[in-house]
Specification:
This protein has 501 residues and is of the alpha+beta class. The chain contains 18 helices and 18 strands. The chain has two domains: 282 residues, Bira Bifunctional Protein, Domain 2 (BirA Bifunctional Protein, domain 2), CATH 3.30.930; 113 residues, 3-Layer(aba) Sandwich (Rossmann fold). Strands 1-5-6-13-12-11-7-10 form an eight-stranded mixed β-sheet. It is elongated, with a radius of gyration of 29 Å. It is found in: Cytoplasm.
Length: 501
């Protein structure tokens, strides 16, 4: 093929390939999260990656593009379909479709990839994994308090110690009360309210100055792209900023030394809004539940928590990592939020015409994985590969190797026969090293005639060879290589594997 005819191998912007070591480490992390969710009584559920676009409705993520931030297409009957942008909207559809047969409350967890048709950037991908847990059918805020406690337990099960994370809680009703206080109440202001909420949700990323621009005239980012602002005046912006605060401080004007003081200060800013005061009272209940369960040192009321999606109707919460690390520029940085969620009592209602209370949270798997890696809690290089059975030059060796591999697999041992093009043991040994194999099995024509096999422990051999200075000495010693009867193959390999854990 001519050079000009070759396809260019390129990864689409905003997507990533994950290698075997990363996937195995991620799988262990997910298993730990799953164990905590199961301990709380949640059951697994899997929904498809594609939903009808109208099932997603107007509850769409933050967007930098005119196509609503989702990947959409039409099928052959001209129905619009979209890749899911989160795991909550598909859950609402599933609950509505199967409502009569599901237990209420319905407690479920899901893990899967979600897709955002947004402008990619550093650490911002168009495909990423989430791990959600939700309770549908529980109207009281005890379910919200439990979600916050479960989030805290997940962090500690993953090895993030107390003091290195904080679960922060607010209430969208309080924020709605603030909107009413600045004149943004009513259905006619729904669009501007959402712009304000999405602006506040960027506080940890853009800081107070960036959020102030988004609350006002708008903001141009480093690439030159302009995001339209909510158009608030200076007095309105001051009221909002007083509530949410500045992460550099890091306190708002209402943040007190205790939840009781914070909630009292919130109430004073709400201007008598019935909606806002209802939200503050719900926060009082949550705080009491958290205190009673012994989680008050890990779960705090924080007026800066917003969550950017429109469907939240009550308590909202985020898990923030508070420890510092060093970024690629050598600067001190924090990972910030790695999980978040809240109450969405109106989402199932869109399908059923009646309110169905629900609450839950979502873990950003990739972000949390990176944080655990920074803490040294992720091991990506220690997984052993398969046992490799080498193949001699004659054809009979292939059939014999297949028989040995079948025996090893039958004994539950991960193994493979070398299927490359080389029939020399040298390149085959290099292949086994690259596969991080714990040992190789060698049976040449002479060994077959004598009914024996050579088994080489590659891990022990590498350790012993460090003390051998010459190639001749190494060939004479053959460190960690043993000859055993053919019938002892499985037992010998199993002993090597046991020795290496």
């Amino acid at each position: 093929m001519a050079r000009t005819d070759r396809l260019k191998a390129r990864l689409p912007r905003g997507f990533q390939d994950l290698d075997a070591a990363t996937l195995r480490a991620q799988r262990r992390m997910l298993a730990t999260i799953r164990e905590v969710f199961e301990r709380y009584g949640f059951d697994p559920l899997e929904t498809p990656a594609i939903e009808y676009t109208d099932a997603l409705g107007k509850f769409l993520p933050d967007q930098d593009r005119p196509n609503e931030g989702v990947f959409s297409f039409q099928d052959d009957d001209e129905e619009w379909l979209s890749l899911r942008y989160d795991l909550t909207a598909p859950l609402a559809r599933h609950v509505a479709e199967n409502y009569d047969r599901l237990p209420k409350p319905y407690r479920t967890y899901r893990a899967g990839y979600v897709f955002r048709n947004e402008k990619p950037g550093p650490g911002r991908f168009r495909q990423f994994m989430q791990f959600d847990a939700d309770t549908v059918g529980s109207p009281g805020v005890a379910a919200d308090a439990e979600a916050c406690m479960m989030a805290a337990d997940v962090m500690e099960a993953l090895g993030i110690k107390r003091g290195d994370y904080l679960v922060r809680v607010n209430n969208r009703k309080v924020l709605d009360g603030v909107m009413e206080a600045i004149g943004l109440g009513g259905e006619q202001n729904a669009g501007r309210r959402l712009m304000v909420l999405r602006a506040i949700d960027k506080l940890d990323r853009l800081g107070q100055d960036g959020v102030t621009l988004l609350l006002g005239p708008g903001r141009k980012d480093e690439s030159g792209d302009f995001t339209k602002g909510a158009g608030l005046n200076d007095d309105q912006i001051t009221t909002v900023i007083n509530i949410i605060g500045d992460p550099a401080t890091p306190r708002s004007s209402v943040q007190g030394d205790s939840d009781i003081v914070t909630i009292h200060n919130m109430m004073a800013q709400l201007g008598g809004s019935a909606t806002g005061l209802e939200g503050a009272r719900e926060l009082q209940e949550i705080s009491a539940f958290i205190e009673a369960a012994g989680y008050a040192d890990r779960v705090k009321i924080d007026p800066s928590v917003v969550r950017g999606l429109e469907y939240y109707t009550g308590p909202v919460y985020e898990v923030e990592l508070t420890f510092e690390t060093v970024n690629e520029k050598g600067e001190k940085a924090r990972f910030g939020s790695v999980a978040g969620g809240g109450r969405y009592d109106g989402l199932v209602e869109r399908f059923r015409g009646e309110k169905v209370p629900a609450t839950g949270f979502s873990i950003g798997v990739s972000r949390l994985f990176a944080a655990l890696n920074a803490l040294g809690r992720i091991e990506t290089g220690g997984d052993l590969g398969p046992v490799v059975v080498l193949v001699d030059r004659d054809e009979a060796s292939i059939a014999n190797a297949q028989k040995m591999v079948a025996e090893l697999r039958g004994a539950g041992i991960r193994s493979e026969m070398y299927l490359g093009g080389s029939r020399s043991f040298g390149p085959q040994m290099k292949y086994a090293d690259r596969r991080n194999s714990p040992c190789v099995v060698i049976q040449g024509e002479d060994e077959r005639a004598r009914g024996v096999v050579q088994v080489k422990d590659l891990i022990e051999g590498a350790r012993l060879s460090e003390a051998i200075e010459s190639r001749e000495e190494w060939r004479a010693a053959r460190p960690a290589q043993v000859e055993v009867a053919r019938g002892d193959l499985v037992a010998t390999v199993r002993a090597i594997l046991s020795r290496h854990g």
